[in-house]
Amino acid sequence: MTHPASGPADPFDPPDVTWDRVSPRLVPARLVVVGFWLGLPLLVCLVLALAVTGWLWIPAAVCAVLLLWIGLLVPRQVRAIGYAERDDDLLIRKGILFRELVVVPYGRMQFVDVTAGPLDRRLNIATVQLHTASASTDAEIPGLTPDEAERLRDRLTARGEARLAGL
């Protein structure tokens, strides 16, 4: 569907929506996890390639290339995460190549969780998890500051209760 004056419509960027971004501290949080899962095998392969056999340079090179690629990709992925509160629903978008837009009506929300693991607490970020009447429409917003996560949790809970009371 196209609009004559504005060109093709973008389903991932509705008109009149101002997107809020997550904290850039989510980038190092994700890089630390990836560094652990790929860096440890890289180190093991390098040590064994030097000590035992040379063919282990191949998996070491694969791990190194993956680390570099993910190191370049993660900051772009984090910048692509956004959320917007509207009158009747919450919009959450993410993704670069495979884009996703989740619309969560306030009346469908059952409860809202705020979580933060040890690394998240160290980097002063938290994740807001939205649980709805249908498990397939649960959504999360990672990388929020604790104050924003608490504010969003309270606001979404209040809006959800108000919508349920109106049914």
UniProtKB/TrEMBL annotation:
Sequence intervals crossing the membrane: 31-50, 56-74
Pfam family, one: bPH_2
Keywords for the protein's UniProt record, in alphabetical order: Membrane, Transmembrane, Transmembrane helix
Domain of life of the source: Bacteria
InterPro entries, per the entry: YdbS-like_PH
Domain YdbS-like PH residues, every copy: 79-156
Protein name in UniProt: PH domain-containing protein
